[in-house]
Amino acid sequence: MKINVKIHFDQLLDFNDPGTVRAFGRALPAASLVAGVTFWQAAAWGAVVGFLAAVLAFVVAEVLVAVLVLTMVEGGARAMMSVVAPSGSSTPSPDDYSFEKSLLARGKVAEALIELEVRMANRPDDPALCLFAADAHAREAHDPATAERLYLRAREIPTATTAHDYAATNRLIDLYLGPLDDPARATRELEHMRDRHAGTTAAAGAEKMLRQLRGNTPTVGQRA
To answer: What 3-state class would DSSP assign to 182?
Structure first.
């Protein structure tokens, strides 16, 4: 079995995070013990050698123990994003974007968007990833123009499924009837929803909204 692990050191050693500070505090006793033992053993070559060896041992032990604490106690999910996929014909587990979600939850929107840009550069043909990035731009970044571009892109990716098309179209309708305020494009997307996803509740709602838009009724700005 082949296991790939990606470590985000910028998050692992983020000293603006209280968890990182706590982890290094917890590592002090162990690092001090390692330094003491090292000094005792290296002192045979002289006090200076023993002191330098003890300092080096302290630093190494402090970092290693702190990393272990962060990974196992302080919520390693924010520090290590592991994608475990057995080699061969097995299907890898779906990506749930936990790292980016944790950044968004902590208000680090710009960092999350950078991570998503890197992901999309490496996986340009992933419609689910493109949809997730579009949602982040629409909701957390309040950037409807970029969100619109990404929703359209997600729908055009060759591997996009009917479910991807449905989600992208639904969100485009929301953007055009909402922050982008573009009734003409909203009409086209409503027609797309009605024709491409006929028989669904959304298609019925799209038909109703189309009648309202064309009839210029007072509820033109509301979704069905």
So the answer is: coil
Mapping DSSP to helix (H, G, I), strand (E, B) and coil, where does residue 3 land?
A: strand
CB-CB contact of 116 with 136 (8 Å):
yes
First to last CA, the chain: 50
Rg over CA atoms, the chain: 26
- What amino acid occupies position 157? I
CA-to-CA separations, 108 to 72, 100, 119, 140, 145, in angstroms, rounded: 23, 9, 17, 10, 20
CATH code for the structural domain at 94-215: 1.25.40.10
The answer to pTM > 0.70 is: no
Q: Which two three-digit tokens encode residue 59?
A: 């630093």
Ranges of each domain in the chain: 3-80, 94-215
Query: How confident is the prediction along the chain (224 residues), in pLDDT tens digits per residue?
Result: 444 444 444 444 555 555 566 666 777 788 788 878 888 888 778 888 878 888 888 888 777 776 676 565 444 444 443 333 333 444 444 678 899 999 999 999 999 999 999 999 999 999 999 999 999 999 999 999 999 999 999 999 999 999 999 999 999 999 999 999 999 999 999 999 999 999 999 999 999 999 988 875 544 444 44
CA distance 134 to 144: 9
